[in-house]
Structures are given as C-alpha cells and as structure tokens.
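Re: beginner question about structure tokens

> Can someone show what the tokenized structure looks like for a real chain? I only ever see the sequence side.

Sure, here's an example I had lying around. Input first:
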Amino acid sequence: MGLRLRLSLVLMIPLVLVVGVYGFIRIRVEQAELLQEDRRNMALTAKAIQIAVENALRDRQISDIHHLLFEIVEAQELIDRIRIFNRNREPVLVSNPLVIADELPPATLQYVIETGQPQDFYQRRGKQPVLYYLVPLRDPDGQIRGAMEIVHLAAGVEQRGRAAMWDVWLRLGVLLALVAVLTGLTLQRQVLRPLARLMEGIRRLGQGQPGTPLPVDRRDELGRVADAFNTMAEQLAEARRKLLVETERALDLERQLRHVEVLSVAGRLATGLAHEVGTPLNIISGRAEFVLQTLPPEDRRREDLAVMIGQIDRISGIIRSLLDVVRPAKPEIQPTSLPAVIERLLPLLRHTARRRGLTLDASVPDDVPPVLADPNQLQQVLINLVMNAVEATPAGGRVHVTVRQRVAAADSGVEVAVADTGPGIPPEILPRVFEPFFTTKPPGQGTGLGLAICRDIVREHGGDIRLESGPQAGTTVTIWLPEVEASPP
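And the corresponding structure tokens:
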C-alpha cells in the first residue's frame, strides 16, 4: 500500500465517520422536528373537531355527528379514521371502516378518559407511519363523557423526512467531496511532491549523480529535511572528491614505487654495465690517443682518430652520468656565491650560444646572499639548464638567466631562473620531463638524465625546482636554494 493511499485512508476514514455521524444525528433531529410539527398541527385539527363533536353531542344529534365525522374524513385526505368512545371504552361512532389503523391500546384510551389529557403516539403499519391522537369529550358541565380517536396518516411527514434526509446526505456528500479534493491537493502539494523530489534526489545520489540541490522554500519539517539532505549531499560530494584525490595519490605513489623499483634494477644493471664497458673503453681511448700522438700532424688519419676519441669520451660521459644517478656522490656543502658561479660559466657557454645564433645574457644583482651548496654540483645544474635552453631555442632567440632573492615557505633563499624563447614543451609531456631517460631530443643527442640529475641535486641541497612552459611561449626552469642565514645550522 503506497503512502498516498495510506495517508488518504488515514485522513478520509475519520472524516467519513464524522460526516456520517453528523448526518445521522441531523436526520434524526429533522425527523423529530417534523413529527413535532405534525403533532402541533394535529392538535389544532383535533381541537376543532373536538369542539364540533361536543356541540353535536350536546344537541344529541347522533346522525349529524356521524355525518360530520364522515365529511371530515372525506375532506381531509390524511385523516384515515375518527372514532368516538363512551366511558366504557366502547366505540359508539365510526367515520369509516378502518383501512390502515389498528385498534387502540386499552390503557391509553383508559388514561384519556380518566385524566382528560390528550394523548398521541405513532405507529408504523407496514411502510406507512400513523399518528393516533386521542382527546376527551366533555358535556356542558365539564364531565368527561368519552373520548375521540383521530387517526392521521403521517405520509407527509414521511415524505418530508425522506426529502430532508436526501438534502442532508447531498450536502454532506458535496462537503465530503470538497474536503477530499482539497485534502488531496494539499497532500499532493505539501507532502507528496516534496517527498517525490527528496526520493529523486536520494536516487540520483545513490547513482553518483548529485544534480542540483533540493529547493528549500519552507521552514517546516520537510524544509528542514530538504536542507539536511542538501548538506549531506555536499558532504558526500566533498568526501567523494577527497577519496578520488587520495585514490589518485595512492595510484601515483604506486606508479612511482614501481618506477623506483625499475630504476633500482636499471641502476644495478647500469653499474655492472659501466664497469664492464668502462674498462675496455679506457683501454681503447688510451690506445687511440697514443696512436694519435705518434702520427704526424699532416696525417689524414688523425681526424678519424679524433672522432673516435670524441665518441669514446661521449660514451664515457654517458656512463658517468648513469653512475651519478644510481650512485650519487655526497655533496660538499659550503657557502657559495651564485654570481661567482654564473660569472665563471657564462663565458664558457656563450661560445656555444653564438655558434647557434643565440643571445645568452644574465641579470645578477651584486647583493645576492650566498647559498649553502656544493659549487661543483651547482655548476653542473646550471650547465645542464643553460645547455637545454640553448639546444631548445632556434637561431635568433634568447636565453636569459635571472638571479634574485626570494622568500619561499617562510625561508629566505636565492632563485635562479633560466628562460628561453623556444617553442615550449607540449602540455602532454610536461609531467614526464623530470623522469630519468626521458628526452625529446633525436636519438644520440641526449640521455634524458639532465633534468633528473638537476632535480636530485637541488633537492639534496634543500631547494626546489620547477618548470613552466607553454606552446610557443618558451620555457623557464627555476631553482630555489636556501641562503646561508636561512639554512639550518
């Protein structure tokens, strides 16, 4: 059984009972009033007939009295019979044979003759209600000489009572229908519709589709329920968002863990490979340099030997980089002046920049505080960043190095930014630029270890590194290192 039907029954059953009881009582009152009115009318009629009959009895004109009773019965359609009794309760005159009415109760007739008080009572003969009215008959001296019975057919009362009953039930039915319609509309608008919206919201929430909040346009219980539901939906949405973030973070940590495991294995393999390959390379390089030194300057084979030695040095550099990643050396931290490091590097790197048709310049204030760093590792970081910028910038471009003091996370430090005017890095590969062995350079022109080494060195110094880039907007790599005063003792 649905809520709509149950609420309707709960509201309508008491209402129907109340209306029914009221209608029953109202009909009974209407019938009592009609009977009372019929009695009053009958009392007036009986009084008139009583006076006429007493005058006729005084004149002892029995035939006239019989004729008078007959005329009265004939003239009054609702008077069924008139009888006159003597003091012995014997009928002496009858207007007409009885059709509907029955015999009188002897006790009632005896009471009227003895007390002189009129009596009346109703009896139902089949479907026909009958009113018996008894009045005493007196002689001129006031002595009771008998009684007169008037039988009145109460068909009018019955018809009026039935009409009154239909009128009452019709009015109550219309009232009941109006109350039912108004109750249904109110129930639909005030209860069922808000409940339907609440159920729809719960269903959407269960399916993971919160949708729009429920309207809170009332201050009753349903309004408070809707407000509480909206609050719960917001809290669930926030909890779900946090859960998704935590899940993504857990998955990312899992991916990083797997990546670290892979790097660990790769590191062990690289270490073994470096030892196995390094020794033969050193022998080959030494023999090649020996042969190169023994050849005369005009020998054409010197150029080939120089190429061989250069490629061997390049392979050795890659092996050293691999060893730096898997077996980094402990940095020798000391107060280091960044302007001094940059001043030593720029002349060396400007030659490469000019050869590629670029402009390499720097903005280095003189009052920059020293930082705690290993000068050699810091130099390695700056060389990697500047060389990456030079290689990524087309001819005619610019690579600019900026140094400034900046407070990060309540700690004072120095920030070095290397910016280029190159094509930038596509957004889809930005999250991978710090991964070891990841490179966008053509094969043979990069190991993919430069930024990974820079990141590890900066973190070991307690600093931070970040990269900003966009399509055709160039790339800026910024490192931050704590200054001497802000560094922990």
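Each token stands for a local structural state, so reading them left to right follows the chain. The mean pLDDT is 82.
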